[in-house]
Fold:
Amino acid sequence: MAVLVVRGGQRLEGEISVTGSKNSALALMVGAALGKGETILENVPKYTDIPAQMAILRSLGVRVEEVESGCLLVDGTGLENEQAPYELVRKLRASFYVAGLLLGRLGRAKVPFPGGDPFGTRPVDFHLRGFQALGADVNVEYGYMVARVGNLFGRLCGAKYYINRASFGTTVNLMLAACLADGVTMLENAAREPEIVDLAMLLGKMGAKIKGAGTDMITIEGVRELRGTRHEVIPDRLETGTYMIGAAVTKGRVKVQNLMPEHVRALTIKLQEAGAEVRESASALEISCCGRLRGVDVETRPYPGFATDYQAPFVALMTTAEGVSLVRESVFDDRFAYVDELRRMGANIRIEGATAIVLGQAELTGAPVETPDIRAGVALVFAGLAAKGETRIHGVHHLDRGYERIEEKLRKIGADIIRVEEEP
Ligand code: UD1
Structure:
């Protein structure tokens, strides 16, 4: 069982490069499978969620190969199996996008309800209602969503659908389903994340007719068939944000490269408000921080708001800042499972409803801790870097789902962090 061992006290200093976006790549792989022809996806990260998504697509008959490091070939010509396997789908939330793929291409789908990080209840009701709006009969049978298009041609029909809460996953799934539908689909209150724009770019190159991606109204005019193409995954704004926070927690100076500064603007503003210096150039950000930061209040929101994925690392940062800060989670029901672990390290945090009340200036000390999910894992790594003594972080497989050997990257910029194997 892998454990990360962090010794506190070092400042992060130097340059670090961001990899391709996980959330984008997971959607793009399924998007590419809509096409009959070879699509090459470049800048695909090496997170463990990627091979899991590859395995799911293969089980449906899609050809997926790693042609070179960070480069995937996806060809949906052989897509024929409508049933996705439970053992694979339960591992990650993004696996549910195959529902949109199957309904779009075959007009039928049998997909188990997905797994993913434990952020409270995570239903897929918006997805299912969207498929119904596009003309599918949708039923829940023995843990599976079983959906069929009843018309003679097995083809979904374009429709207007209002998505509750600008859900990211629902927007992806319905974009996938609507590309090959008959007629025009309008997605109202659509998610505006850069990964949605990335998906629309890929699908557009494959021959889809999509307008408005990046706004809350996406219009998709269905076409008969999509072809293969070549596309580069955008940089991971969530990985970017966590390194920015890491620099601030350790009062370091870090240049984060290969990114799109506008994708992390909400975080940049909050870090500046807290007293960090953030300098932007075209594709890099330099974060420096000397002295103690001020506590600031934040609320997580869908993009372009403050991303929920920054919440846990930001709480870790606020434990070291001056004064009280209120961090409100308004995207997921319960994303504070890691708070008890920070408390073990001496953090003073109270949870009231959806808000973490963080009393700053904590003297953190190293402790054995366990991460419940990807970003909480990073929060614990950063808290460990700011703490006195040694922190041992268990549950490293969660981190591997969203970071490529995080310890190697952080070591290059001065962190004292190693991965060791421990007896279970
Ligand atoms: C995606 C990202 C995740 C990110 C999140 C918010 C992936 C694989 N995951 O998750 O990293 O933190 O967006 O930016 O890309 N909801 C429903 N019913 C539904 C769908 C969603 O009630 O059918 C609720 C969710 O429980 C949640 C909120 O809507 O409270 C937003 O969820 P959503 O935007 O769909 O997030 P995900 O796509 O699951």
In short: Residues 23, 26, 93-94, 122-127, 165, 167-170, 308-309, 331-332 surround uridine-diphosphate-N-acetylglucosamine (CB under 6 Å). The longest strand covers residues 2-7. The mean pLDDT is 95. The radius of gyration is 22 Å.
